[in-house]
Write a structure and sequence with these properties.
alpha+beta, two-stranded parallel sheet, single chain, about 230 residues
């Protein structure tokens, strides 16, 4: 038998067998991914809840205990079962004598790279934001991520004015970011040089969040005090 005969005697590969094998492998990989996700999701959620709880005490430094509240569609606030439960949650902080010291608010909005999620603390007494933490961010390392650690920028949140108009319907002076070193008002954010977009993003997130939350929080202060 010559070389040509040898070549023709070898059976051609069956494409159906290859497709079936590849499909089976893909199905198995997909199943493993789903199983891994389902198995690790409770752990991930628990870690997120623990991190959020720690952040609440950072933005409300005088708090000794916290109580989550859910803002319902009816406009009322009701106590929630825990930090990590679903719903539009806010977190009331209390001192050792169970006096209300402030509220921690979760907010998010578009940054330069992706959505930025933050947590800020509000003081009824000062009518101001008194603490700030970045919960999730993908801003550019070395530039945009300075919103998490730049000391000058974080000083903006020691007493950032969010007082309401006399009728209590909205924030009197919406939060805005200004060029670094030009801050003259207590509702302005001194932006970070080289990270203007991320600084503006934080100002926009806070502006929208405080416009929505501050009137509702002040109106329901007695609910949190109870």
């Amino acid at each position: 038998m010559n070389q040509k005969d040898n070549q023709t005697s070898v059976a051609a590969p069956n494409s159906w067998h290859m497709i079936r094998a590849m499909g089976g492998i893909g199905l198995l990989c997909g199943l493993l991914i789903v199983m891994t996700y389902e198995a690790t999701l409770p752990i991930i959620d628990q870690k997120k809840a623990e991190y959020l709880e720690k952040a609440i005490f950072v933005v409300l430094p005088d708090a000794a205990s916290i109580q989550p509240f859910e803002w319902k569609q009816s406009g009322e606030f009701a106590q929630a079962a825990g930090v990590g439960v679903p719903g539009r949650l806010t977190f009331a902080g209390y001192d050792q004598q169970n006096n209300l010291v402030g509220i921690a608010v979760d907010a998010r909005g578009q940054g330069f790279q992706d959505v930025i999620r933050i947590l800020y603390g509000y003081s009824f007494e000062k009518q101001a934001i008194i603490g700030f933490v970045v919960l999730e961010s993908k801003e550019t390392p070395g530039l945009g991520d300075k919103i998490e650690k730049d000391e000058n920028f974080l000083r903006n949140f020691e007493a950032l004015d969010v007082s309401l108009t006399p009728d209590g319907s909205t924030v009197a002076n919406p939060i805005v970011a200004v060029k670094n070193g030009t801050k003259t008002e207590s509702w302005q954010l001194d932006a970070i040089t080289g990270a203007t977009i991320s600084s503006n993003a934080i100002a926009n997130i806070l502006q929208k969040s405080t416009a929505e939350w501050m009137p509702a929080l002040v109106e329901n202060k007695t609910v949190f005090e109870k």
